[in-house]
Specification:
4 copies of one chain form a homotetramer. With about 120 residues, chain A is mainly beta. Helix content of chain A is about 15%, strand content about 50%. The longest helix of chain A is centred in the middle third of the chain and has 17 residues. The two termini of chain A are about 25 Å apart. At the B-D interface, strand 3 of B face strand 3 of D. Strand 3 of chain B pairs antiparallel with strand 3 of chain C.
């Protein structure tokens, strides 16, 4: 996420929000953020949300996710929120929602449903 | 849905809840409702939710859906809720959640993310 | 699957085909098979395909699946094929394809991408 | 895709392959390609595959996709293949598979099932 200039914008048990500036270098010619960047932000938010319910040294991997792209992402800032839907011993299911913000306006640009797996220790 | 003995349990703009008894004939040997029945109920709830935001004579078809099965469904009653995430002219994105109820207890058994298309008039 | 009158139509390592008659009692008023039935057949084909690569006493559960409904299913017979895409120790990823057959004609009615988990022994 | 240094590696009716070098700037600290990059490559391969079956001036947008991440992507080159599963007037369903190559070795790193919509002319 460092590559994307992303910061944690909020953390609670089972919930994480990540925010990042929408920069030209991550956008297409039409000014919209690449779908891959939106997906990466959502994937990270979901992964971090899963981690909030695990022991400190736990690691998670994304097994799979589905994303619906709802609107093109442009503006000043992208916020990706991840929420745990169900936490299991091995598998955690998370939902994610991404919003593009410009000033006071907020557009829902994508929604994700993801499965995370707790990584076995080395 | 008539086959499943399902009834509308709640309707609002962009939201529908369907309820049905959990019957032995729709269950497996272990007493759990068939996943296909849970999916059918979620699919219907999502389709009806999409219809609440369309003209009266509109019809919708499911393009695709993803379902995470969270827990086995047993008990007295299955409730499937559908919510519109984004309504477009042609495509509507919906989220669905299914709960198995036994007395006052309620278990979240599945979650769906679906894409519906408005059917072109014949 | 017994409820659906389904039979194994082919089994190989990592591959299973299930066939079932398309019966009025499983169809909608328009004569098309319920999406829930198509999904149940695909889910079973994927689960059995995963089992072909496991020890004899293993059991699998569906974690999640995504289905694209490609065409309405009508005709004499539904065939659901499941194929293992990647078999892991805990998780197996499978693809499934469903076809509706009438005489010599075969229509691709749905495609599935699914994640199965090996069930921990009781 | 230019940002990723991607080139078309093969084109046929309903099929496209994209290849790109696996570069450190697109990789994580552990040397594995970011999932967002793999997803972007698969999404592009699926979109281009859909375009091969459309008139020359057509444009497509991704409605949604599901991705299963099968293995970490490292090596010299990433190849993403997109194939049309069903082409409709408005919606096209595509499957995608991504492979990481190092010398003669090829690892299946991800599989996608996607829905594309033909964009209405402005």
């Amino acid at each position: 996420m460092a590559t994307l200039g992303a910061d944690l914008d909020g953390v609670a048990a089972g919930h994480v929000a990540i925010a990042m500036p929408i920069e030209p270098r991550l956008s297409q010619q039409n000014g919209f953020l690449h779908a891959g960047v939106v997906v990466a932000a959502l994937d990270s938010a979901c992964g971090y949300a899963a981690l909030t319910l695990m022991p400190e040294d736990a690691e998670v991997l994304s097994v799979e996710f589905k994303v619906n792209l709802l609107a093109p992402a442009s503006g000043d800032r992208l916020v990706a929120e991840g929420n745990v839907v169900r936490a299991g011993r091995t598998l955690t299911v998370c939902g994610g929602d991404a919003y593009a913000e410009q000033g006071a306006e907020r557009v829902h640009v994508a929604t994700m449903l993801a499965t995370m797996v707790r990584r076995q220790a080395g």
